[in-house]
Specification:
This protein is of the alpha+beta class. It is built from 3 helices and 2 strands, in the order H-E-E-H-H. Strand 1 and strand 2 form a beta hairpin. The chain has one domain. The longest helix is centred in the C-terminal third of the chain and has 10 residues. It has a two-stranded antiparallel sheet with strand order 1-2. The chain is elongated and about 60 Å long.
Length: 77
């Protein structure tokens, strides 16, 4: 079991063997959650290989919508 000390600023270092085992890299986002009085969970947020493809989707919309039509609908709201 790896150990790490909490600093005065409540920071801690993830031990090398843990980082290597899970493949954690600098800049990745993790969530920190209190489970109970004695347990804390640290989880990596899911990785997305192609964020734009993830947001747009695999299949294109079946029909082309002109920008003018989108602007009209936005103004009507």
């Amino acid at each position: 079991m790896a150990r790490s000390r909490v600093t005065s600023k409540f920071q801690l270092t993830i031990p090398k063997e843990v980082k290597e085992k899970v493949g954690l890299r600098p800049g990745e986002i993790v969530t920190v959650e209190s489970i109970d009085e004695n347990n804390i969970s640290i989880r990596r947020l899911g990785r997305v290989k192609d964020p734009l493809r993830f947001l747009i989707g695999e299949k294109p919309y079946p029909r082309h919508i002109p920008i003018e039509e989108l602007e009209e609908k936005a103004e009507a709201r």
